[in-house]
Write a structure and sequence with these properties.
With about 130 residues, the chain is of the alpha/beta class. The protein has one domain: Conserved hypothetical protein from pyrococcus furiosus pfu- 392566-001, ParB domain (Alpha-Beta Complex). It is about 30% helix and about 20% strand. The chain is built from 4 helices and 5 strands; from the N terminus they run ββααββαβα. A 5-stranded mixed β-sheet has the order 1-5-3-4-2. Strand 3 and strand 4 form a beta hairpin. The protein is elongated. About 20% of the residues are buried. Its EC number is 1.8.98.2.
């Protein structure tokens, strides 16, 4: 949770609707611990103690998602939460379903999105 989203309500959107335009650098052990926790076996990682994993009741913290409306409709972008999103991705691969991602949705403009993507924002057709 960030300072921008701390007062926003937790929502859920399908993983398939979230664009992740920047390739992440991932810690596989952290992702494995998250998947295990989501599947009912709380597991500690470098950033989460066993006590915290047990207290989460199988839920991951919400991911901050940027929401932009354009001529094609509503689009969602994630620039953080890469390990959490990868854990949802693994759940999707094993279940064959499109999991609902717990998130906090931040209304965003094209100019704000450009702070993350630079001139590449023009390639998105927004």
């Amino acid at each position: 949770m960030s300072i921008q989203s701390r007062n926003l309500k937790v929502s859920e959107i399908p993983l398939s609707q979230i664009s992740r335009p920047i390739a992440p650098v991932l810690d596989t052990a952290k992702i494995n611990a998250m998947v295990s926790t989501m599947q009912g076996t709380p597991t500690a990682s470098k950033t989460c103690t066993l006590e915290q994993a047990e207290a989460s009741e199988g839920l991951l913290p919400p991911v901050d998602i940027m929401r932009i409306s354009d001529r094609e409709g509503v689009r969602f972008f994630a620039f953080g939460g890469c390990h959490r999103l990868q854990a949802y991705d693994r759940i999707a691969q094993s279940s064959g379903e499109d999991p609902m991602v717990r998130c906090k949705i931040i209304p965003t403009t094209k100019q704000q999105l450009a702070l993350y993507l630079g001139s590449s924002v023009e390639n998105l057709g927004i």
